[in-house]
Design goal:
This protein has about 180 residues and is of the alpha+beta class. About 25% of the residues lie in helices and about 30% in strands. The chain is built from 3 helices and 8 strands; from the N terminus they run H-H-E-E-E-E-E-E-E-E-H. A hairpin with a 5-residue loop joins strand 1 and strand 2.
């Protein structure tokens, strides 16, 4: 079997998620990495990021669906953990690539392929972001003419992100010199 670049990227992504889940499992009594992973299999989107709340047993998962799911981990009478959806946060237009809780556990920050960063208040009943930063075209107004050590594909990618460059127009294209 050939190991492709996509396989490698998915491995790196799953490694980060596995690290986060393992870290959470080590902080909660009587719960395993596999048990948390099984909770997340109920997610209705392909997961790109997982974070756990530093102050209470809660997981945030986010991914290709463009929404964030907050999961409460509840300890049952038999000392087993179970999960239940606390709330779903919607507001991004594209996939949510990363989520992180604030140190006090009361806010969540998410970033998306829609070029926005959203701040969510987890204590309220309203599931809308309290602040949004729009990144826009990061390289807008940057002239990359004369930049060295970049190939044509990299230059084209920078142009797609808003950069511009002076292009030489051939003299008399297609005609006699």
């Amino acid at each position: 079997m050939k190991f492709t670049e996509l396989d490698y990227c998915q491995y790196l992504l799953s490694s980060q998620i596995n690290y986060t889940i393992t870290n959470l499992a080590s902080h909660l009594e009587n719960i395993s990495h596999d048990k948390i992973n099984n909770y997340l299999k109920n997610e209705k989107q392909k997961i790109l990021s997982v974070a756990f709340n530093p102050k209470k047993p809660m997981i945030a998962s986010a991914g290709h669906g463009g929404f964030i799911t907050l999961w409460n981990l509840i300890k049952a009478d038999n000392n087993e953990w179970k999960s239940e959806i606390h709330k779903t946060l919607k507001g991004h237009k594209l996939a949510v690539e990363s989520v992180v809780f604030s140190p006090d556990g009361n806010k969540l920050i998410s970033c998306s392929q829609d070029q926005t960063i959203k701040f969510w208040d987890l204590n309220g009943d309203i599931n809308i972001s309290i602040n949004t930063i729009e990144l826009g075209n990061l390289y807008q107004g940057m002239n990359i003419s004369g930049v060295k050590n970049l190939d044509e594909a990299q230059m084209d990618a920078l142009e797609e992100l808003g950069a511009s460059r002076d292009r030489k127009i051939p003299e008399n294209p297609g005609g006699p010199n």
